[in-house]
Amino acid sequence: MKNEEEKIGWLRKVGRMMRLEFDLIRRDEAVIIFFVLLAIVYPPLYSLIYNPEVVRDEAVVVVDDDRSELSRRFTRDLDASPDVWVKDYATSMDQARDMMARKQCYGIVYFPAGLEKEVQRGHQGHVSLYCDMGVMMRYKAMLTALTSVQMETCSRLQSEKVHGLISLDGGLVESRQVPLGNTSMGIASAVLPFILVYVLQQGMMLGISMIHAGSMGRRRRNKGVDRLDDVHAGPGAMLVGKAMVHLIYYFLPAIFALHIVPLLFKFPMNGDVVELFLLMVPFLLASSFMSQVMRIFVNNREGVFLVLAFTSLIFVFLTGVSWPHYQMKPYWVLASEMIPGYWASTAYVQMQVCGASLSQVGHMYIALWVLVGVYFVIAYLVEAFVLRPRYKAMQLESELDPEALQKHTLYQMGDDNLDDPELLEDDEDEE
Amino acid sequence: MFRIIVNSVFRGWKQMTRRPIYVCMMVIVPLLSAWFFFDLMEDGVVKRTPVGLVDLDKSDLSRNLTRNLSAFPQVSIKNTYDNYNDALDAVQRGEIYGFFFIPSDFSTKALSNKKPTLSYYINYAYFAPGSMQFKGFKTLSVLANGGIVSSVLTSVGMPHEMVSATLQPIVTHVHALKNPWLSYNYYLSSSFVPCLLALLVMLVTVFSIGMEWHAGTSRNWMRTAGNSIALATFTKLFPQTFIFSAVGLWIQYMMYSIYGFPLNCNPWNMIIAMFLLVVACQGFALFICSLVPNFRYASTICTLLGMLSFSFCGFSLPEEAMYSWVEPLGFLMPIKYYFKINIDQALNGVDLYYSRYYYVMLIAYCVLPVTMLWRLKKNCLDPFYIP
Fold it and tell me: Which of A157, A173, A357 is the closest to B145 by Cβ?
């Protein structure tokens, strides 16, 4: 009987905690910025930046020492390919290098003298491409164009040559590439699905840090007590109540980022909406509890920026969006597997881009639920054994000296010696 | 006067040492992140992408082909599958990133001159593994074709030395200038790590000023500096310049010396660029603070621009491929010029003359805030803090 009453009491605490959390979020515009605006503004912004997907018409110059029909045709074909634009001819390699240094082009195609003669004599002819390596995608575009023109030219020359011997039109074996999922093979459709998930996690982490920073500010001003926190819930009820609110708050931003943005920017959408939604539940819960753990690093508003600076880049690379997960060192693999965003973004990509069902990425789904449990336990310990003693210490400190907390701020600003007579004298001198 | 300077510098120094957050943001975060990047991508090139194999032919010819595939460094055959659906399922589960498909009529068609088709399926949801598989699979198909054609040509009596010229009358040589290893680390880390440093410089600058408003001590700050805004900002920011430059130089040392990134210019060109980058970012942030004298807005602007710099400065998608209205945004940020200097000087080693504008732009950012300092002063003497 008693047990049941306690249970009801616990649920009531959770309910009141939820109301408090709603209130705290609504009060603080910075939290709204992170919770809602970040999820609404960043995904379209990133999508717009990367939306061109591929490099088209990369500028190259041609140095043609052969001046033959073959080299001219090769150049024409190169110019006609979508990836490369033959901007100009240079008279020498020196001139071409100078143009490259001036960024008038990013590649040089070189035909040595005697190319056509070599080929006609039945030997191999050599064509060179020099690429600026400042940005990999330029190199990729030039390489693709050159390779495809080379193959066309080769099969044309072959069929001219062995005509009559055997029919060898373009080789005996054909090959074709079939891109799966990301059929445009572009950068936006490869990078953005990871980023979309990751933005949700970051927004939540920063928002929750911000709520905590606000509470710490109130504690500093009010003798270590947060006046708004009138619930006095235990750590468990508090964490659950807050997480529920975060889940509710993220419902719309998650739908926007994960469904509407791909729709607007024509990213691959092969996932089942309901299953994607199911995937988001443990992800958002795990993110919420992980953020509650991160509060340990946040004592004031600047602490939020510390969290931002430290996690923003490292977390996104740990998802494996640039450097693949299978080639990471074991300790980085371990680190990434502790981040909900890694599992969620990988599962999201597999589902949304490659068309996997939730059961096919089942192990990732389970991993997310495991993280929910793990982070709940850690967050509980942090709340009970680090944060609450910290508040207690603040209260004790201000009981001894009511102005201790304000003084601490002045101390940190280097203004602790304000009642130092010398400085005041200076002040009077000026006036 | 001398005492004012000493007091002022001393106050700035105390602020830095009394808050652990400064040590974190100025030393620990940049160094730890730099190490993270360099260590994460130390291999340089994406290798051994897990792929699958579907061989429906099971002939000598196809076995020969697959033996070749396992010799390529780009891919590693993780599993063989009995049919297309099993392989696709493995791709969707994320076990493999693509697969090579040999149809059941491959050898019969090939030997009777009927052009069979080899297919390779690549999951392009992952950019770098996708390109690597393409390279491996493409080479294999070309080899397959070559192997069969050469045996046919030899059988009809073509002399052996002419066979390869017939197969590939034109060979291309691609010279990836100064980065022939195609190292991802050299390319990505050398732009992302300085960009993170730039973000940190801007953030620290904004909140070392913003905290004066926030804590209500901006008048004390001005008073300690004898009400001179130039002295106040200089004494506050100079200790930070010193530490950030030291951290930046250490990062450069890690890159060029420990991890062997290409450095094809006089090291001083990069050292000066790093120093200018730090001061330019401070200048940029100071300018924003003067323009928008509100802690929250100034820090939001700097964070937003700093985070977006990674994307719109053209590190991965080059600037000429971007929409024409996105491209100029990149040129707003000091890091863009450092990035260009890094390519020109450290990577390509071209003459300093070609990079002159980038250095000039960095210097311009150092001077920029001077035009707006009067506004900052007004605000510090008569603060109104909007929480």
Answer: A173
pLDDT of residue A421: 36
Q: A84 in contact with B at a CB cutoff of 8 Å?
A: no
Domains of chain A, first to last = 2-50+184-412 (no CATH), 58-161 (3.40.1710.10)
Rounded to the nearest angstrom, the minimum Cα separation between A242 and chain B is: 24
A148 touches chain B (CB under 8 A): no
What's the pLDDT score for residue A388?
93
Torsion of CA A71, A77, A79, A82, to 10 degrees: -150
How many other C-beta atoms are found inside a 10 Å radius of the C-beta of residue A331?
A: 9
Please give the ipTM for the structure prediction. 0.90
Task: List all residues of chain A from 256 to 315 with a beta carbon under 8 Å from chain B.
Answer: 268, 301-303, 305-306, 308-310, 312-314
User: B64 and B38 in one domain?
Assistant: no
**Look-up: residue for tokens 């050469």?**
B150
Asked whether residue B106 falls in the same domain as residue B162, the answer is: yes
- Neighboring chain B residues of A49 at a CB cutoff of 8 Å: 308, 311-312, 317, 322, 326
Residue A426: predicted pLDDT: 36
Q: Is the model's pLDDT at A427 over the cut of 50?
A: no
Neighbours of A390 (CB within 10 A): 15
| Total number of domains constituting chain B | 2
Percent of chain A with pLDDT over 70: 92
CATH of the domain at B79: 3.40.1710.10
pTM for this structure? 0.91
Residue of B119, B207, B348 lying closest to A176 (CB–CB): B119
Alpha-carbon gap, residue B184 to A85, rounded angstroms: 26
A329 interfacial to chain B (CB closer than 8 Å): yes
Give the domain range for residue B103: 49-167
Per-residue model confidence as pLDDT tens for chain B (387 residues): 788 888 888 888 888 888 888 888 999 999 999 999 999 999 988 888 999 999 999 888 888 888 888 888 889 999 999 999 999 999 999 999 999 999 998 888 887 778 888 999 999 999 889 988 988 888 888 878 777 777 777 777 777 667 777 777 888 899 999 888 889 899 899 999 999 999 999 999 998 998 888 888 888 888 888 888 999 999 999 999 999 999 999 999 999 999 999 999 999 999 999 999 999 999 999 999 999 888 888 888 898 899 889 989 989 899 999 998 889 999 999 999 999 999 999 999 999 999 999 999 999 999 999 988 888 888 888 776 454
In sequence order, what E strands does chain B have? 49-55, 75-81, 98-102, 117-123, 170-176
* Cβ atoms of B383 and B222 closer than 8 Å: no
Q: How far is Cα of residue A99 from the mean position of the Cα atoms in its chain? A: 36
**Chain A contact set for B18 (CB, 8 A):** 411-412, 414
Do both B375 and B328 map to the same domain? yes
Cα–Cα distances in Å, from B376 out to B193, B210, B317? 31, 11, 37
CA distance B367 to B378: 19
Facing residue for A179 by CB, picked from B14, B124, B214 = B124
Q: Among A121, A218, A326, which would you mutate to test the B interface (most chain B Cβ atoms within 10 Å of its Cβ)? A: A326
B326 and B238 in a common domain? yes
For residue A109, give the H/E element and its range.
strand A107-111
Residue of B nearest to A52 (CA): B322
Cβ contact, residue pair B299, A305, below 8 Å: yes
Partners of B333 on chain A (C-beta within 8 Å) are none
Number of inter-chain CB pairs under 8 A, A vs B: 339
d(C-alpha A276, C-alpha B330), whole Å: 35
